[in-house]
């Protein structure tokens, strides 16, 4: 319902892909209750349906079905349903605790392996005895854990409402339900910062300043081949160049990019080891090959056109931030001075240059240095200054076939519509799993009936808000005496050749 799926490769795993639980890695099997949380794979593993109906998994790709706001909405709706007419917070809490425990018992009585499916992982068995012990433990802690859960869930969703009122007036209703595959992580975090300022009497008055001034809708990014995004040091080792991170390049250091990811998904205790392992994993994670036919001859023609018109921008380790592409600049401007300072201080608090952690038995210092140069005293490199990231990076386009819809705000359904902007549809269907092999992108045409097996996707109206706008990357760009042709409306054969080549990246 919120867009997470069962990954057939995780045989017997008791939850959908994208949900992890702490029992998998806790030192002592029954040392604590299991906490479930979203994992990187919730957003960064996608799927495409092949011709025979089977799924190809896209590790490091995009789960365009995942609706993280939709999840939060449903939690608050469920709580409201339990409260009914009760308005006294203490009584509301009791109602929720009773309801949770009753549901827990009912499920477990129906099936003694209801929650863990008798799953085993390495040498840990999540069998009937484990499940029973966890339930007993949970019941002991329910009086403290459940109220905390309620408080966080309600505050987070209310915070989102405050942000939405300020920066998404045109799409209030839609964005309070969430757009699958898309989020505004920075605004979401800003809402949390808002509450921590507001709840402190010394800073309460300043809380509104923590709210973002721009709307920053962002599609989930692919995270493979991160080495093509990793920066280099400048000559005197004081600054990072030739790299980027996130759509506007503002978190260049891989370790902080991965820490930001954990902060975004609301990990209460950031585990910097996860970020360090993610760094290792994503550095050379390959993109999946295009699973349908490619016309090699046509692709070769496209390669030459790409070299002439695209490669100067779309190349590995291009740290340049482009401000003249014409796409909506909200995402690029969302991290103003206060948000940037706040982000730097939370990133470096979580992982300071002196922090030592146990990395699989050996001590490691994940934030001590980058490529052999110390990060001590270089806090500002954990997020670049606003004036340096007020535009978008041109990504290397590796595995671009699997990354539709396109642009940072996911407003253009296919590569064809990227290159033939005159035909871009204002409305299209987003987050289907079928593939449009002709225009190259996920099936988008509202006139094509959805896959009969499952009604997939939702209609996105890009005209509703400037933040969803599909304009930009639609006019040729002049750079000195060189013209880059971005609008191929008058040369569709050329566009088709480039698209054929893009399939091979
Ligand atoms: C709720 C969905 C979601 C989850 C879960 C998530 N991410 Fe992301 N990720 C995003 C979005 C959206 C972006 C684009 C952010 C932007 O620029 O605004 C992104 C961007 C990234 C990038 C930047 C890629 C680049 O080329 O610059 C990396 C790296 C990354 N995520 C790693 C992770 C890791 C590691 C985890 C797990 C700890 C994770 N993400 C969990 C949604 C998610
Ligand atoms: C002057 C630099 C520049 C040139 C030349 C250029 N692009 Fe881009 N391109 C960008 C930037 C910057 C973005 C990101 C814009 C955004 O997301 O708002 C982008 C985005 C894209 C995207 C979407 C990427 C994604 O992950 O959604 C595709 C596809 C693309 N360009 C293809 C091309 C092709 C093909 C050409 C050549 C015909 C080309 N570009 C020429 C700068 C350039």
Listed once per kind, the bound small molecules are: heme C
In the predicted model, the low-confidence regions spanning at least 5 consecutive residues are none
CA radius of gyration is 24 Å
- Measure the end-to-end span: 33 Å
The major beta sheet can be summarized as: 2 strands, antiparallel
- Helix content, binned percent: 25-40%
Strand order of the largest sheet: 1-2
Tally the helices: what do you get?
13
Main attributes of the structure:
3 domains; two-stranded antiparallel sheet; 20 strands; globular; binds heme C; electron transfer activity; Cytochrome_c_Peroxidase/MauG; heme binding
Please give a quick description of this structure.
This is Cytochrome c class I. Residues 297-505 form the Cytochrome c domain. This protein has 505 residues and is of the alpha+beta class.
What does this 3D model show about the protein?
The chain is of the alpha+beta class. The chain folds into three domains: 19-210, no CATH class; 226-284 and 328-388, no CATH class; 305-314 and 396-502, no CATH class. The chain is 34% helix and 11% strand. The protein is built from 13 helices and 20 strands. Strands 1-2 form a two-stranded antiparallel ribbon. It has a two-stranded antiparallel sheet with strand order 3-4. Strand 19 (477-479) and strand 20 (482-484) form a beta hairpin. Helix 3 (89-110) packs across helix 4. It is globular, with a radius of gyration of 24 Å. It starts with 18 loop residues before the first strand and ends with a helix. The protein binds heme C (2 copies). Residues 38, 40, 42-44, 68, 183, 185, 218, 220-221, 223, 226, 229, 245-247, 257-258, 261-262, 265, 274, 278, 282 line the site of one heme C. The site of one heme C has 26 residues, from helix 12.
